[in-house]
Amino acid sequence: MSRVALKVDKLSVWFGTTSARRQVVDNVSFRIGAGEAVGLVGESGCGKSATALAILGLLPTTTATVEADGVEINGRDIFSLSAAQRRRILGRDVAMVFQQPATALDPVFTLGQQIGAVYRRHTGISKKEVQLAMLGALEQVGFGRPEEIASAYPHQLSGGMQQLAMIAMATMCKPAVLIADEPTTALDNSTQAMIQHQLKRLQTDHNTAILLISHDLGVIRQSCREVMVMYCGRLVEKTDCDSLYAHPRHPYSAGLLSCIPQISATRPAGISAIPGQVPPATELPPGCHFAPRCNRAESQCRQSIPVLDTGLDRDVACFRQL
Amino acid sequence: MRRTWQGLKSDRFGMGGLLIVAVFGVVALCVWTGLLGQGWSEVSGERWEGASTAHWFGTNILGQDIFQRTLFGTATAIEVGLIVTFFSTLLGMVLGALGGWYSHSWPDEIILWIKGVLDSIPFYLFAAAIAFALQGIHWAMHLAMVLTFWTTTARIVRGEVMRIKEREFVDAARAIGLPGLTIVFRHVLPNTYHILLVQGTIVFVAAIKTEVILSFLGLGIQDGVSWGLMLAESSQEVLAGHFGNFMAASVFLFVLLMGFNLLADALQDAWDARRAIP
């Protein structure tokens, strides 16, 4: 494994006040090497975004409690930094791409102003140089006429173009780590491909480590070598993409895989779905959180919590592995 | 900006309002630069003369020219409107933004408490108290208005900031390492400017009306002339059948406020049209 760019050690997140707090992320640990891409997959409400925001220290301290043995970005533990020191790292060493580019961009400034401001803040170079670098970044993500994009307001662009501009903004400072929270979910398939191509380019050109959060296993397979499956705040399976797709060990991973619509000449009999719903964090079942929805669950699953075992080719948290 | 202007240009009532406001503005400028209305305190005729070429609106009880006094009153009204609007909007914007950003924590509590105290004092009592405390100071009336008018602006801005700070671009701004206060003043506040524009026009109109009322009551202008003072004079004259002061002050006041309201409505529409694009 190459140099570690992002290291997360036993990260836990609670929402709510001390009297009524509920755990949304439970003891999550992983590391991503420079130039690698790791996928984080799970249904909505599994704690994927909370994990991302906690890594950046962006959760509001009034409503969220974050505990971790350490979160290191490029070798620096960001929880031990002061607020001012952390701000210097955010945007420069680690950047984030959001799910909804339309709302993640400030509607009253042009894209050029917003993209340039990030670069200027972290480098402190002259306005003219910033302008050149900003146009260069827009050109790199595939805009033929960057000047036009730079002078446009966010609402004047389509969702895909907004997201490409967001990526240009996130990559201005060539960050060591990029966290992409469902970057393609709101976009159509061909635009998805463009975004994925840009993420790949970042990996190879700038050796950026990417944490790609998605509920779409297809997207993750195309972009990532490794994948982590999350359910109710816990990692349940962690392995490389190929073996997960070939042979999922955790029943939840298997369920997610069977939900992917297949394209074939014959009309499929129906769409399969995992029965039941993700329980709210206030009503987590004891034992394995997935047990109530799992067709392989036994009494042991309902009583004790399976730990993430380090197996031969993968880590799985299940008593009744497939 | 250009699109706002395009929208305004296509609105006939709005352009009429703009014309009216512009004429009043030019009059005020001419008074300030000494081109018009300089004879407002001079006794230039007999008591209660009728309209004539020498005295367009006639003269008052002392034989002063009512037309000159009306023009000077225009400058007074515009001055009060501009100063009160500027400072109360500035104060309301800054304190409202801080309150909204730090909502439900101590800065917000303090600002809310001050707002509550100021709002609970009857306005004319408050203005009278300040006029008494700052006797002879020209800015007493302005101060009373700024101190009470900013609360409404602050309340609106606070609510809007509380709404906007939940938007994703605020998280995005945090994710690139901007400190909180930079985010409020550079990214959140600019998103409230359309509301400030509307609220500013409302404050402007309210300030002019309030100036006239305060001056009428003797709590306002002391060292010049105002439409309010003219109306106060006219309360004796109308009974005696002399309508010069009354007509001049009330018609000017009415036309200015009407013009300003037309302009404000049109501005709001033009601005909204630009915002309506998703």
Considering the chains and any ligands shown, give keywords for the structure.
heterodimer, A: about 325 residues, alpha/beta, Rossmann fold, 12 helices, 13 strands, B: about 280 residues, mainly alpha, MetI-like fold, elongated
Count of distinct structural domains of chain B: 1
Largest sheet of chain A: 8 strands, mixed
Q: What's the SSE pattern of chain A?
A: EEEHEEEHEHHHHHEHEHEEHHHEE
Overall mean pLDDT of chain A: 87
Number of strands of chain B: 0
CATH topology label of chain B = MetI-like fold
Distance between the termini of chain A: 28 Å
Walk me through what this model shows.
The complex is a heterodimer of chains A (322) and B (278). Chain A has 322 residues and is an alpha/beta fold. Chain A contains twelve helices and 13 strands. Chain A has a single domain, classed as Rossmann fold (3-Layer(aba) Sandwich). Helix content of chain A is 34%, strand content 22%. Chain A starts with a strand and ends in a 6-residue tail after the last strand. Chain B is mostly helical. Chain B has a single domain (20-36, 64-275), classed as MetI-like fold (Orthogonal Bundle). Chain B is built from eleven helices and no strands. Chain B has helices at 2-9, 12-32, 66-101, 106-120, 123-133, 140-164, 168-175, 180-188, 193-217, 227-237, 244-275. The longest helix of chain B has 36 residues, at 66-101. Chain B is elongated and about 75 Å long.
